[in-house]
Amino acid sequence: MSRPRVVILGGGACGMTAALTLARAGTEVTVLEREPRPGGLCGTQEYRGFRFDLGGHRFITRRPELEVLVRELVGQDLLMRTRSSVILHRGQRYRYPLDLEDVVRRFGLRRGAHAVASYLGERMRQRLGPEPDLSFEDWVAHRFGRVLYDAFFGPYTHKLWGIPPETISADWAAERISLLDLSDVLWRLVGLRRSPDGTPRTYARRYLYPRRGIGQIFEHMGEAIGQAGGRVVTGALVVGLGLEHGRPARLQYRDATGEHELPCDAVISTLALPLLVRMLGATRGRLDREVECAAGRLRFRAIRLLNVLLDRPEVSPHTWMYVSEPRYLAARIQEPRHRSPEAAPPGQTSLMLEIPCDVGDDVWCAPRQALYERCMDDLEHLGLRGLRRDTIDCFDSFVEEGYPIYHLDYRRDRARALDFVSEVPGLVSCGRQGAFRYIFMDTAMAMGQRAAQAVLQSVGEPKPGAAGRPIGARDIADWGAEQGLIEARALTA
């Protein structure tokens, strides 16, 4: 029997890990990645001796097999780093994750007392007559009170997603926000109880990070795929999917040399779920109106990254600075040098400003210089001074499908889209965009391994004595639900 032929659409964390798993299992695997480098959202850009990731990446996992894999790929270039993060709000720097003791102290006596009273009043109301958590706003206000919601959670969330928090599913809050123990905070405020440190038990301060950026993992993974007999094609835009007898049979893609067709027995797609639904509908010559509408409601928030090269050794001691106030464009400011000393030349540093927007809006289309000037004004007002004087250069990056937006009925729409894709045997949709789930890198990698196992089940020869329920497409998309995460998330994506 000839080797099964699998094509993987997208060379991000999920797709690349699936490809490596399949290649090492003897499958003929090809990855099609539209960017000029592997890694997808976990890629790293180099410019004038500086390195910038496409986001705030770090490697943290509870899956030992993934850590073994990353250590195998990166070797001695894998650094252990310590995270330092703050929230910039009204001219002050608050601890991240949000700490109620710190908030009360910085708010001052009157506003702090108001925040505690709001918290206590809301908790009492919920005990006497619990109200349903339909939206993000409901979930947070019911657990933290209106004062903290209005100060931090509401403005940041509206800024990040571009829609009012009352139109965002409560799932987002339940997955991302750690609850505070008010009784412990109150005892500590009066000095009768001390915690060993100021961070929640679940907050991971230490993390692994490659010396040359997060993309180094996937550059080495691409080499390992090649050594195992697979290949990674970059600069490849997928334009069509062909079926025979209801199964994937060929992929059409376009690159700098023209259009090409790849025969295949199975496909793992990490393309955006709505795009895959439309592509599959075109292939099958039909798309149910209900499915089309459901897929159309699944939207992503875009990110424009302004990367600023600076001739100074440091801007702040913090890796991440979160900006909740909506009058400032950036939602998060990063200083990459704190993740790796090789992110900038000796004696120099850089900033990466993450600016949430929508494709085609004023921020997305703004001239780079105008965006730079606006952001420099914002940073000056935030207390980060002299950056214009020290700027060497700047460039920008664009992420069209950064964050899946959890609108109120997203579960129903997502299920309809995934069910439509699941009607095609040998086609799996996974990864952050393909599963329409805001997952982190290690979960995406584990999802890729799971997808590879499902494909091997569907196209490989059954092993003697093999048992167990076949892995379904929905099983993969829901794989690794973020329960009991190792990092608390007070505000952010």
Quick recap:
The chain contains 18 helices and 19 strands. It is α/β, with parallel strands linked by helices and about 500 residues long. Helix 1 runs parallel beside helix 9.
What does it look like?
The chain is of the alpha/beta class. Helices cover 38% and strands 23% of the residues. The protein has helices at 13-24, 64-74, 100-107, 109-128, 136-144, 146-161, 170-176, 182-189, 215-227, 273-284, 289-297, 362-365, 368-381, 387-390, 410-422, 431-435, 441-459, 473-477, and strands at residues 5-9, 28-33, 44-47, 50-53, 78-82, 85-89, 92-95, 206-210, 231-234, 237-244, 247-255, 258-263, 266-269, 300-310, 320-323, 332-334, 349-357, 391-404, 427-429. The strands form five sheets. A seven-stranded mixed sheet has the order 7-6-15-16-17-14-18. α3 packs across α4, α10 (273-284) packs across α15 (410-422) and α11 (289-297) crosses α15. Residues 181-202, 462-467 and 482-493 have low confidence and may be disordered.
